[in-house]
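step=encode ok
step=design start
structure_in=
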């Protein structure tokens, strides 16, 4: 089977259904690697930076369009999440989380999904990549 038509194992076909070459887009913001979920948490955002560097070393960044995501706006976030959840993310910080005990439980925020410095900015950047990819 011709690999350009989709016979390349687990990879996506390089030719779309309409016969045009597929365009691979990659959204990356180096600042995402600066966030820290806390000691012992398995999510280590600095690994995103490491993955980006690895993509560069393999020459894969040259094979795709790289975009820096625009931070998602409140109205973008509210298309997929309840207004009160977005408001909570905007207002909660490690210093104020004790003032939000009810909301922490309601939104299941805690050990697995911790409050950390810059949480809302992180969410905006992450969601901005998804919104940018959708557009």
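sequence_out=
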């Amino acid at each position: 089977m011709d690999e350009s038509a989709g016979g390349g194992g687990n990879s996506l076909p390089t030719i779309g259904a309409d016969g045009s070459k597929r365009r691979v887009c990659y959204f990356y913001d180096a600042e995402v690697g600066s966030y820290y979920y806390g000691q012992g948490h398995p999510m280590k955002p600095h690994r995103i930076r490491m993955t980006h560097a690895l993509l560069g070393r393999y020459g894969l960044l040259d094979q795709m369009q790289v975009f820096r995501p625009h931070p998602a706006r409140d109205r973008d976030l509210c298309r997929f999440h309840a207004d009160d959840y977005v408001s909570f993310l905007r207002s909660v910080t490690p210093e104020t989380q004790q003032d939000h005990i009810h909301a922490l439980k309601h939104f299941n925020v805690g050990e697995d999904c911790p409050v950390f410095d810059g949480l809302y900015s992180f969410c905006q950047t992450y969601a901005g990549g998804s919104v940018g990819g959708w557009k």
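step=design ok
step=annotate ok -> The helical segments are 46-57, 74-77, 83-91, 101-106, 119-134.
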